Amino acid sequence: MIRPPERLPERDAAIEAMLPNVPFDGWTTRALRAGLAAAGLPEDEATILFPGGAADMIAVFCDLADRRLTEAAAALTETKLTARVRAIIALRLAMNRPHKEAIRRAVSVLALPGHARAAAAITARTVDAIWHAAGDRSADFSWYTKRAILTAVYGATLLFWLRDTSDDDADTRAFLDRRLRGVGRLTRARERASSLVGRLRPAWAIR
Fold first, then answer.
1. Which of 104, 121, 164, 191 has its CA 20 to 30 A from that of 98?
2. Could you give the maximum distance between any two Cα atoms of the chain, in Å?
């Protein structure tokens, strides 16, 4: 599991306070200072709370969203793993709908070459949170394959969602369903291939 950013109530509160300003000023110290001032917090704490700048702010925002997603997902009634993953991703997007422009700006920031490591860590933590909320407790090699597959699915779905103008993210949910069906077909094909290889291996061993 990738280590989360430093968790402090003051950092969470600062992110909450700055979010209304992010659509206009981006993930900047200016937006943070304005948010702190509006919340009655000292503006000079901006650089103290987030010494890593924009990437640090975005990491805390996403970590806060991960924690809230884990809490909210506990109320879901789906029992099958794929159905739970689908429901959790849909829930994540619904919870983030009020902050869509802030997330669009965050994606732009994290796309910069200098933030590649931060982007990978943030995505990995979110994907891991989704799998854990879905009930996956794998510890073997499938831990890596599951997360690699979901990273591709979640990343594509997020980018589609940022362009989606349909009511209640209907088009995004349909897109997500198609991606998950594609993963299911690929998984079944791999399982059949593995089974076939397993049956043929004894014949290969004959010299």
1. 121
2. 80
Q: Which amino acid is at 87?
A: A
Domain contains 207? no
Q: How far apart are CA 196 and CA 183, in angstroms?
A: 20
Three-state SS sequence of the chain: CCCCCCCCHHHHHHHHHHHHHHHHHCCCHHHHHHHHHHCCCCHHHHHHHCCCCHHHHHHHHHHHHHHHHHHHHCCCCCCCHHHHHHHHHHHHHHHHHHHHHHHHHHHHHHCCHHHHHHHHHHHHHHHHHHHHHHCCCCCCCHHHHHHHHHHHHHHHHHHHHHHCCCHHHHHHHHHHHHHHHHHHHHHHHHHHHHHHHHHHHHHHHCC
pLDDT in tens, 53-106: 999 999 999 999 999 999 999 999 998 888 999 999 999 999 999 999 999 999
Confidence band for 197, pLDDT divided at 50, 70 and 90: very low
- Residue 25's pLDDT band (boundaries 50, 70, 90)? very high
- Return the CATH number at 179: 1.10.357.10
Domain count, the chain: 1
pLDDT in tens, 64-73: 999 999 999 9
What is the residue whose two structure tokens read 């700006």? 105
